[in-house]
Amino acid sequence: MAEKSFKYVIIGGGVSAGYAAREFIKQGVKPGELAIISKEAVAPYERPALSKAYLFPEGTARLPGFHVCVGSGGERLLPEWYKEKGIELILSTEIVKADLAAKTLVSAAGEIFKYHILIIATGSAVIRLTDFGVQGADAKNIFYLREIDDADKLVQVIKEKKNGKVVIVGGGYIGLELSAALRINNLDVTMVYPEPWCMPRLFTAGIAAFYEGYYANKGVKIIKGTVAVGFNADSNGEVKEVKLKDGRVLEADIVVVGVGGRPLVTLFKGQVEEEKGGIKTDAFFKTSVSDVYAVGDVATFPMKLYNDIRRVEHVDHARKSAEQAVKAIKSNEEGKTIDVYDYLPFFYSRSFDLSWQFYGDNVGDAVLFGDNDPASPNPKFGSYWIKDGKVVGAFLEGGSPDENKAIAKVARVQPPAMNLDLLTKEGLSFACKI
Ligand code: FAD
Predict the structure, then answer these.
(1) How far apart are alpha carbons 279 and 289 in whole angstroms?
(2) What are the pLDDT digits (tens) for 363-378?
(3) Which of 2, 46, 91, 365 is 20–30 Å from 187 (CA)?
(4) How far is the CA of 388 from the centre of ligand 1 (A)?
(5) How many CB atoms lie within 10 A of CB 321?
């Protein structure tokens, strides 16, 4: 079998890979030195589009429109860009074996790739109900969403099941964004999740009450406190019913499951140190194996701001960690050093006419401020999280770019706030004066 050798190989062709490629070019690589090996058939793109405009009936996003690095306002890297720069994009190629000691990767088709420096950017895979043996979970028209192929299947079934019934399993951001996108397509949408409110890992009860109310006003039905325990299919094998643990049965032409992901690290098991489910790195995304870096969803890295070690599954971190790793690789070659990664957690979501941003850490006491009436014509509200007398996290729905900058600054600066009643009263103006 053919063997190819590169100075730098990125395994994975998602968000991190694209931003790493741009940084390599900024820092200077020679044609033929860098290869990106990806299971997907397309050049790196901004993955968050898949649960948003990719599914809209109007204003639809399609490639090449959302190739990286447009998501952060940068130049769009089309497949031709990689060619021009002498970066080899090796697509539709799944790596099935990685030998970090021998610096060798092997693809499903048996091709061998050698590298001097490896960047692991394999991202996450969705958790499937079939993983837990949920009865009937292999029926047709039960979907998951991670890659563009998954999104294409959803686009197809939206066309086939016009005005049909959809059950969304899971109340996280994927469940919320997909419910909105499918409702906009005029489907009859019901969400099911076990928790007392949606997005419980981030939202407080007060924040969630707004979104649940807003979704209800848009015609999305929400069933909380129970889970899907089985599915019934028709004679074609297509899903028809979702059975809930509380005994209820919901009709369904389409089911979409968004119950979380897990980082794709199995290829490297036993070869590299792991922590918190990811590959352990230092503040330059260097792993325990020399010449091997890990970025994006798979990296468990030191979070300087909180003196903690964390793994982050957000697009902003995927971009920034990739850039940091490439800067570290190139400066190391020149015998120079760079600053440690100093990340401020940032996460956002958009659905219907809504748009929120969150910065920092959602720990300690939370206070809610602003107009969070779901029926309000222009709802704008937020939340601060206060720990040890300091504001450590901030959330804002409906903020302007400047207001979002202000809450980011609050989360970074961590100003003191002893009087929570006053903070509630001051609301957004507290952030704007920092
Ligand atoms: P990915 O972008 O997932 O890229 C991983 C790549 O590796 C893929 O191309 C995959 O095919 C490839 N790969 C994996 N294994 C192999 C292998 N063995 N061989 C070859 N290739 C392999 N974050 C936000 O902050 N805001 C959002 O609104 C938001 N929306 C999202 C919506 C969706 C539908 C999804 C799925 C994620 C969303 N995220 C969002 C999360 C964000 O997209 C991820 O955190 C980010 O993509 C991680 O980047 P990554 O490079 O680590 O992994």
Answers:
(1) 11
(2) 999 999 999 999 999 9
(3) 46
(4) 35
(5) 30
Report which of 166, 309, 342, 183 is spatially closest to residue 241, judged by C-alpha positions: 166
Nearest CA to ligand 1 atom 29: 48
**Is the CB of 38 within 6 Å of ligand 1?**
yes
Higher pLDDT, 89 or 132: 89
Ligand 1 pocket member 14 (CB < 6 A): yes
Quick one: which of 284, 306, 302 has its CA closest to 293?
Answer: 284
Asked whether 298 and 310 are in contact (CB, 8 A), the reply is no
The pLDDT assigned to 2 comes to 74
pTM over 0.90: yes
Cite the DSSP H helix spans in 52-165: 79-85, 148-160
Q: Which residues contact 170 (CB under 8 A, 6 or more apart)?
A: 191, 192, 193, 257, 258, 259, 260
Written as six digits, the tokens of 135 are: 């009865």
Given a cut of 80, is residue 345 above it in pLDDT? Answer: yes
Residue 121's nearest CA partner among 274, 298, 285 is 298
Element (H, E) at 360: strand 354-360
> Can you tell me whether residue 70 is helix, strand or coil?
helix
Whether 126 lines ligand 1, by a CB cut-off of 6 Å, is: no
Q: Is the CB of 94 under 6 A from ligand 1?
A: yes
The kind and range of the H/E element at 200 are none
| Residue 37 CA, closest ligand 1 atom number | 20
CA distances to 1, 96, 113, 300 from 105, rounded to whole Å, are: 13, 8, 5, 22
Mean pLDDT value across the chain: 97
Rg (the chain; Cα; Å): 23
Q: Does residue 1 carry a pLDDT above 80?
A: no
Q: Nearest residue CA, atom 15 of ligand 1?
A: 122
Instruction: Give the integer Cα–Cα distance in Å for 253 and 255.
Output: 7
Q: How many CB atoms lie within 10 A of CB 218?
A: 16
Kindly state if the Cβ of 313 falls inside 6 Å of ligand 1. Answer: yes
Judging by DSSP bridges, how do beta strands 165-169 and 254-257 pair with one another? parallel
Confidence of residue 134 (pLDDT cuts 50, 70, 90): very high
Instruction: Find residue 224's DSSP bridge partners.
Output: 193
Q: Looking at the CA of residue 299, tell me the nearest atom of ligand 1.
A: 52
Assess whether the C-beta atom of 222 lies below 6 angstroms from ligand 1.
no
Look up tokens 């928790």; give the residue. Answer: 195
Q: Which of 16, 47, 293 to mutate to test the pocket of ligand 1 (most atoms within 8 A of CB)?
A: 47
- 52 ligand 1 Cβ < 6 A: no
